[in-house]
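Researcher: Re-running this chain for the archive, since the previous output was lost when a drive failed. Same request as before.
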Amino acid sequence: MRILFATVSEKSHLFTMVPLAWSLAAAGHEVHVASNPALTESIKSTGLTAVSVGKDHNLHEMLTQNRESLENPLSDWSTPELDQHSWEQVLMKFKISVMFAYQTYNDCMVHELVDYARHFQPDLVIWDPVSYAGPVAARVVGAAHARLLWCIDIYAKMREVFLARLVEQPEERREDPMADWLGGILARYDRTFDEEVVVGQWTIDQIPTSLQLPLSVQRVPVRYLPYNGPSDIPDWLRETPGRPRVVLTSGVSARAALGGTFMPVADMIDTLGAMDIDVVAALPPEEVEALAEVPANTRIVDFVPLHALLPGASVLIHHGGFGSWGTALASGVPQFIPTIRYADWWNKGTTLHEAGAGLVVHASELTAEVLRESVERLLKDASYKEAAERLREENLRTPTPHDVVPVLEKLTVEHGR
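Model: Regenerated structure tokens:
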């Protein structure tokens, strides 16, 4: 088969695709990965074949300029439940998301992606859950298509809420920002819109079933295999820590998208530095420069592959990004997540808390006392480690990317041209 992966130019989104892309390539399929020009070198660094389409999006600049308004009722998708949203509320959420996020991500690449799909003629298009250019291209050329999830599926679940409220409205009040936007693009190619363009013909889901929202979409569970990009193992990582190792990362993807972190990193380093632990903090140079001093128990690194670091760690502290969250799950490490209600970050924290494998706090409520007590609780209460191990075992029981290749082949035949 010819398989086209489509992602917006976010390195963290790309990295979630690499194990499956290589599994399909190793099974004999021709795999290409398409994105905005800014991601081309990152795709090439994975060894996969890159396709540059369209222009680069400017969403990062928009988010950086509007950091103070990131967390507000209009952009908060953390409660995708029917009883939490009136028609007016859920309609406004979709209007805002389509206008300021989905169009910004996709309009700059969709037409060139369609052109490339016409040239490549893929049998299957696999797209990340905000890369709606992917299903558009698939629809135009008649290819099967599937979402590849790296998130608690707030996107499909909120769509269910929207559709439930939509049918309650009289005809004159009904409007659908997603259908208007995607339907307008498809009409240029003499194609029509339906819900498959929003949620895929099926969903390849890297979230453990026990942590995922109840979904009406067809799921193909797949084991999350961490991929951190080209990296090497530092000498110090071969040494067994003498005390519990606590890892802090301010989030590569969050810094790139938002122009910095919302966590008080310097204060957190001071607090952790006074505890009887070994600290490894993955921080960019600008955050290191802001430190008054580096405590004796703290090692500062610019980057270290989490999949190599976490098996020897006792706690991971991070903002709620999927790479950190998923790698800790795969490693059986309890997590402390100080975060905000943006994307599915809050959902990752709350689902982990409910599973007993971690703690979550809103970033605005993070104090030195909260940080210290949370870390001590995760270290001293064995139930958190036990719950984290249960999630690790659930991930191990889930079919690998290699295992799901025959499933994807079968579904492609069923859904394709």
